[in-house]
Design brief:
Elements: H1 8-28, H2 43-51, E1 62-66, H3 89-104, E2 110-116, H4 117-120, H5 140-156, E3 159-165, H6 195-213, E4 220-226, H7 245-264, E5 270-271, H8 283-286, H9 290-293, H10 295-307, E6 315-318, H11 332-340, E7 348-354, H12 359-362, H13 374-387, E8 392-396, H14 420-427
Helix pairs in contact: 2-6, 3-5, 5-6, 6-7, 7-10, 13-14
């Protein structure tokens, strides 16, 4: 079998598109209106993966960072996330070194890593059909090397939140002009009229393949069901939109069709789709109540728990500093815990911490960090996690990146130097070394 490689022109387009998405996402939601050998998977392996009982290991004290190492890849120069095809010896050694330094230097034990659907496909923008065999659609080298990456994390003492990103959360005929997956495109697949059937196949088979082929599946702390029809690698649109109510209607249908299958796949814990509070200061959102700003939390809790009776192993949310209380006087974290249930506070992962470098994003919000240092902002996050007994957290992000000059959000500079003031307070959150 020929192992698929993306043509150079496709690589360039994908890098440009994904970097554009990253920059766009950082600003859009706050102001939102509405060479590895191939493997022939056998039927026995598929049955084994599907029939094995799940034994989730719910962990506490997860202390982490979004993993975007500034390591040049020979095929993907400028791409800010780990690359698993090819995952050659020289590049892999640098990834392994970065993982060890996260554990040893920063005293962290947890990372968030994105697996975006375009990289998992053997043919550009051609996602699996419902129930299609994995060997017929997948870039096996990518998936097998992602499994090897789990072993690399194990060797460094790091646990992983894998965010599986599929953009097809609503049919293409809903808000078509804003879909990232477009007819004739060569990157993100196009959502058909019932995208949940195909998405369920993709999520399930990726989970089961990686768990089956890593030596240390226990280092997968959780799988996250992620994706955004407009931006790709971003929080799904779980919040209400009065202008296009069909988005919520079809998102609910997607969640209710896919979540039961997603949750049953493999053995490792399943995290909720990441919930996003809307802190925009535009006229649309300024006219809304605090509970309206938290509609993503209310909706997802209703769909997963009240309607499906399938509680996630972890509830994952994006968290903004000084939102409890925010400038409107409302205690948003307190209300989130009330919505999800106080008994579930110990299952909440507070993520995407907005430390230094997020000023442009926060300028379009009701959140203010004026007068606070980067260290003070992170200290605020850490204290809130302790106060509410959250299971863990991760910071956005690990490293500044040369290709993202406008967003220098890392706890480590592009030159590899740790930012000393941030590193000190981060190390203090873990056990003394």
């Amino acid at each position: 079998m020929i192992v698929y490689r993306m043509p150079t022109s496709h690589i360039a387009k994908l890098i440009v598109l994904l970097l554009t998405i990253i920059l766009g996402v950082l600003n859009a939601f706050v102001g939102a209106e509405p060479t590895t050998a191939t493997h022939q998977e056998t039927s026995a392996e598929r049955v084994e993966a599907k029939s094995a009982s799940r034994t989730p290991d719910i962990q506490k004290d997860l202390r982490g960072v979004f993993f975007n190492p500034n390591i040049r890849h020979k095929c993907f120069a400028g791409y800010p996330w780990p690359i698993f095809d090819p995952y050659g010896p020289e590049y892999r050694a640098k990834i392994r070194a970065a993982l060890r330094e996260i554990a040893d230097d920063a005293n962290l034990n947890f990372i968030d890593v994105v697996i975006a659907i375009p990289f998992t496909l053997a043919r550009s923008a051609q996602a699996p059909k419902a129930n299609q065999s994995l060997r017929d659609w997948a870039n096996i080298a990518y998936l097998k090397n992602a499994a090897a990456f789990v072993d690399d994390c194990h060797d460094a003492g790091i646990f992983i939140q894998f965010d599986l990103v599929d953009n097809r959360w609503i049919p293409y005929f809903v808000d078509s002009k804003n879909h990232i997956g477009r007819p004739g495109g060569d990157c993100w697949p196009v959502a058909d009229e019932t995208p949940w059937d195909e998405s369920a196949t993709w999520y399930t088979q990726v989970i089961e393949y990686i768990e089956l082929h890593t030596k240390h599946p226990e280092n997968i702390a959780m799988w996250g069901m992620m994706g955004n029809y407009q931006y790709g690698a971003a929080e799904p649109v779980l919040w209400d939109n009065d202008n296009i109510p069909e988005i919520s209607e079809y998102t609910e249908k997607f969640v209710k069709k896919v979540w039961p299958v997603f949750k049953a796949a493999g053995k490792r814990p399943k995290a909720s789709p990441i919930m996003l509070p809307i802190f925009s200061n535009n006229p649309y959102w300024m006219a809304k109540t605090p509970d309206d700003r938290l509609s993503a939390f209310k909706n997802l809790k209703k769909w997963l728990v009240d309607d499906l009776a399938l509680r996630p192993d972890y509830w994952v949310m994006t968290t903004y500093p000084y939102c409890d209380p925010a400038t409107d006087g409302f205690y948003y974290l307190r209300r989130i815990v009330e919505i999800l249930g106080k008994a579930n506070a110990s299952r909440i992962i507070s993520t995407d911490f907005k430390g230094p470098g997020h000023e442009q994003e926060l300028a379009c919000s009701i959140i203010s960090t004026a007068g606070h240092s980067g260290r003070e902002i992170l200290e605020w996050h850490f204290k809130k996690c302790v106060a509410y007994s959250f299971a863990g957290w991760w910071i956005f992000s690990y490293q500044d990146h040369e290709a993202l000059e406008a967003q220098q959000t890392g706890i480590r500079g592009a030159n590899g130097q740790w930012k000393a003031d941030l590193l000190t307070v981060i190390r203090q959150q873990g056990p003394a070394k």
